[in-house]
Design brief:
Low-confidence stretches: none
Oligomer: single chain
Helix content: over 70%
Number of strands: 1
Number of helices: 12
Shape: globular
Distance between the termini: 10 Å
Strand content: under 5%
Amino acid sequence: LATPMDTVLILIALASAFCFALALVLTQFGLRTAAPLTGAAIAVPTTALLFLVISPLTVAWDQWASPSATTFAVVGLFFPVAVTLLTFSANRRIGPNLTGTLGNLTPLFAVVLAIVLIDEAPNATQGLGIVAICAGVALLFVSRGNGDARPALWTLGLPLSAAFLRGIAQPMVKLGLADWPSPFAAVTIGYMVSAVVMGGVILGRRDGGNWPARAGIWWFIAVGIVNGAAVLLLYMALSRGPVTIVAPLVACYPLLTLILNWLFLGQSIPTRFALAGIFITVAGVGLLLRS
């Protein structure tokens, strides 16, 4: 049976998965009026400003640990900024379903790096659970594709790159949290660096890009806040448990994406493959928690 601490860890990780899924679906509304770069230019700085404003209440800056802060800042160079840009671009080109499916490979990257950086190797049951979750979520969308259009091969590299970077970020943040166990510090520093990177990207553009309508701006502000909550919850889960447990649980977000797409966008859910995928994903989560 799960201890109270284990239960909290599970709930936090699943809450993070829900927020990632919700942000992925909300992005679809914002991308109707603006390009991915424009959306990211709104979402990332908005979230960074929010975390900075509340930081006097959430971050004990007097406990500053330079090695940890440096790690959080390095992660901020690519997560969430690069992951957001890649995910937005993938969302627009191949849709949220394929984006979520390929993004589900994150735990594989995360676990490999966790083994290298912090000697956190999964046992046999955990390994089987991780593989089952990845396979089960992939089955959810195997029959969906991208409508009638077959996506270009290079576009599949967008969500794969995002999954790789997200996978790298998790064990790195886990390492930083060892000396400064503050998820709020990790997310605040990371988002501040990401906002600076985003600003540099925007300043480096010669054209101003297309500015969305007011409704589009609010959609991206909402996406930024929800994404920020997802990252914060992810870091909170990492501060409580191992990468080998947290990463696969958070990677269940494509299953939630499928459900939210059905609720908000009216997209149909494939029956045969969906049922098989749900069964295998739930079995994988069960194996993971049993371990």
